[in-house]
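Action item from last week, closing it out:
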Amino acid sequence: MNYKQKVKLLNKYAYSYYVLDNPQVTDEDYDKLYRDVEKYEEQNPTLKLSSSPTNRVGDKIQEGFKKAKHIKQMWSMEDVFDKEELTIWIDRVQKSFEDIEFICEPKFDGASLNILYKDGLLIRAITRGDGKEGEDVTSNIKTMNSIPLTIDYKEQIEIRGEVVIKKDDFQAINNQRLDNDEQPFTNPRNAAAGSLRQLDPKVTAKRRLFFYPWGVGENTLDMKNLSQKMEFIYSLGFLAPHFSKKSNSIDDLQTIYEDVIKTRDEIPVMMDGMVIKIDDIKKQNSLGFTQKYPRWMVAYKFPALEKSTKILAITPQVGRTGVVTPVAEVEPVNIEGAVVERATLHNYDEIKRKDIRIGDSVIIIRSGDVIPKITKVLTTHRDDTEIEIPRPIICPKCQSELLDEGLLIKCQNLKCPARVLNSIKHFASKKCLNIDGLGLKTVEQLYKNSLIENILDIFKLEEDSLLNLDGFKEQKVKNLLESIKNAKGCECNKFLNSLGIEHIGEVASAKICDKLGLDFDKALKEELLLIDGIGEEMAESFLEFFRVNKELVDELKEIINPLKPISKEIKDTIFTNKTVVITGTLSRPRDEVKSLLEDSGAKVTNTVSKKTDFLLYGENAGSKFEKAKKLEIRLISEEEFYREV
């Protein structure tokens, strides 16, 4: 590839990255190509193209925002990638000054912003843009709590920094975007930049952005060192960086850099390097600027976290709840010293939406995650040998039929090795069979020692085998076996709820048992759909469960012998056939109050809506009470309630 082709390709990548927020290559690949172009231009300055990306400082301005000029220009930063390059930079600055003190701070992976204050008031906030003018995003940044609307300083000052998003919030936003069938952001930098440039400030406000100052533009602060100026800025109410260290030697700088790499996963904000600046402002001014960079600062970039690789296979993985998640097996690639061979995908809907295929070249990112993630498919690399990925219909662990609901694919087999521990934990929980002493840790211990392999084995436990386990004393064993014995003869609805059928919880179990009795497992779809509150999805899940687990449930029925539900006579009250929501602290247990309402033929829900007929409230009633008042829903105190029932 010649120089002109490289320039054209870089411009294409830059447009996709900055304007479309849709990166086509990893940062590492882009940087490598950029430096090739930079090197050629240094050797052949007369052949430099006016369209070269090295003439730019930042990204293009998007339509939809007004342009605004910076009082003082905003600069980009020179990058170095190893100790050798850092040494060259230090040797260069030390030609002018031998005794130099450096300050080291995080290089946050976000969007640069310049904020202007006059007379203590926030006047304007501008993105970096081309360095001389950017986009006026004042309305958006006013939604950010980390940016003061007023400061205790009356002189005109430009405060510059990075708009970032925390890693956890970034993941939450991407999960939400996936739920909404939207393209997830490739990395936190894109999420911050995209959020900052929303035309609707309300969208920006929801994104939980943070602003970390790293410098000043126009200012009249009379201080010798930049670190002193920044301490003053932080004192005005701005966030300070997660670290700021001083050094005056190359070895010390390298040590700080290596320590930061080791601990960077502990910092909640994504960093892509460490910024090294000369602290003395006079020395900064003496060194000045190139056409693009300040000569007195440099970004010491971290090893790339993004790499391109190839998908070799997709393996379905069954989690502890039975949910099947696709895991990509990829060509081994070294990311930050770790050889990565697997990457997670959210679900099979994501595979379809991204059109991921076996044989695809992809971008993979690792950010302290146990399993890295695939962020992008490089469809331009396809050669028609790629294979589409089918949705699984059989569980890879137990070969049972899978429940496929689109976004969710789940194994409901109670004997499946992947989900047996969670199945037993739910089965024994308080609202199900209430087997005291059979919590998750105990279940894990019993499973590890091959005393239980599925729910049926609970009822085969014997005193002698339990006494051989660590921590199992005679009284503990006696109590556990007694609790297991007492689980027999439970109510029908508790037994049904204990099976852990997807979408069939406590309320649905009670309704199904009331209508169908102990023959619930013989139900037809038409019968289920006639039950109040049972929809198509619930019915399909219910039927699929019994296709897979019929024999096991029959055995459990024989052992437990659940009781046939007793027909309740509905007491006629003002709550009969009405929808009621309970809120606040009551004098009696909430389950007891709920039972009284249900005995009166009421439907008890958790959410206040226009369909709610009554709100039953106790002490310290909160947002539900206020919402009910606004909707003019009848409010019933606890005292009034007991008079009515």
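Closing note: Confidence is low (pLDDT under 50) at residues 58-63.
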